[in-house]
């Protein structure tokens, strides 16, 4: 099934997103090619998963997805493609994840839901909190050229996106 394809051809919203590097990133003004994979949540030592997490289809898989992108980072760079992960988690939560997992690219926080609201990105709710559903954008000069949704096997997303770009 293919959903969210209506976003292809649209410019990303003009919004500054806080990045784990400390500098904001505006995907609408980002020149060249980029891949943005959206994920719902990453676990953190000492913090429980959201309620019912184990029973929500598609909820698990953010860490394997992020690590697969980190391992493939060099391939994306050789193609001249910038790489970003995006969630509605705080930048502080994301920085901890980047440091613990030694990620090689930046994570972006849409905690204010500016991007989610402007694009109508799919979400789910558990425990009174909202989370992005997993999807991946391929961008060219801030314009969405392709959308991958749903992502049933998050650990394979990076390889599948690389194959599509090659």
> What distance separates the N and C termini?
23 Å
Low-confidence stretches: none
Task: Indicate the overall shape.
Answer: globular
Query: Structural class of the helices, strands and pairings?
Result: alpha/beta
- The chain-level mean pLDDT equals 96
Name the helicity range.
Answer: 25-40%
Largest sheet: 6 strands, mixed
* Rg: 15 Å
Brief description of this entry?
The protein is of the alpha/beta class and 166 residues long.
Notes on the protein architecture:
With 166 residues, this protein is an alpha/beta fold. 25% of the residues lie in helices and 23% in strands. It contains five helices and eight strands, in the order ββααβαβαββββα. It has helices at 62-71, 73-78, 91-101, 114-119, 157-165; strands at residues 18-19, 33-38, 81-87, 106-109, 123-126, 129-132, 135-140, 143-148. The strands form two sheets. A six-stranded mixed beta sheet has the order 1-4-3-2-7-8. A two-stranded antiparallel ribbon has the order 5-6. A hairpin with a 2-residue loop joins β5 (123-126) and β6 (129-132). It starts with 17 loop residues before the first strand and ends with a helix. The mean pLDDT is 96.
List keywords for this structure.
166 residues; single chain; six-stranded mixed β-sheet; alpha/beta; two-stranded antiparallel ribbon; 8 strands; 5 helices
Set out the fold topology:
Elements: E1 18-19, E2 33-38, H1 62-71, H2 73-78, E3 81-87, H3 91-101, E4 106-109, H4 114-119, E5 123-126, E6 129-132, E7 135-140, E8 143-148, H5 157-165
Parallel strand pairs: 2-3, 3-4
Antiparallel strand pairs: 1-4, 2-7, 5-6, 7-8
